[in-house]
Amino acid sequence: AQTVTQSQPEMSVQEAETVTLSCTYDTSENNYYLFWYKQPPSRQMILVIRQEAYKQQNATENRFSVNFQKAAKSFSLKISDSQLGDTAMYFCAFMKHRGGGSNYKLTFGKGTLLTVNP
Amino acid sequence: EAGVAQSPRYKIIEKRQSVAFWCNPISGHATLYWYQQILGQGPKLLIQFQNNGVVDDSQLPKDRFSAERLKGVDSTLKIQPAKLEDSAVYLCASSIRVNNSPLHFGNGTRLTVT
After folding, report:
1. Inter-chain residue contact B44 with A108, CB threshold 8 Å
2. Residues A8 and A24: beta-carbon distance below 8 Å
3. pLDDT digits (tens, 9 = 90+) for A46-61
4. What CA–CA distance (Å, rounded) separates A40 from A112?
5. Which of A73, B19, B82, B102 is buried most, with the most CB atoms less than 10 Å from its CB?
6. How many angstroms separate the CA atoms of A22 and A77, rounded?
């Protein structure tokens, strides 16, 4: 079974600074996808960024970027120029191709609570 | 584009009572998911539908949980009878198709079982 580990239960950062959230995963699959989701107090899970395992180039979305190390099974999220609105739970998630067909399953880590301080 | 709609937003029940949650996915999304998120943990998949058929319900406690997706659109998740450990946020999500399409989540229903 796939597992996703986020070793930092909580982190804090000053506004405008940069912070990196860690994520490691365990899989024997070669083709899969990795995601970072943000969950603010409203509880809605919002997709921040995604990475296809077959792509060597790290994904970037504005202030958000990832450091994807496939051999190390590591997928960290870097948030640059942190803003107060970035305060939320951040979940790393893994999606693999499942079985013989087109069925995919999303597995989440336990999350990291990020607080951006003014 | 309207998002994934869920109701109710909050629900408090006593143990052994029953409860039902409703989800309306984004129009045109074929795949629908129900996740359970216990406080301090990441969401766990309970059941996945493709149109009105079940793709995966391996982690659904079938002795007390049931779900249906009639006509491949709206879905309901029911718990009967509820236990204290069912206290959690129940998230519904949908995606256009069942492959690597991004999941769009609703705001969830927070269930408290006393």
Report:
1. yes
2. no
3. 999 999 888 889 999 9
4. 12
5. B82
6. 7
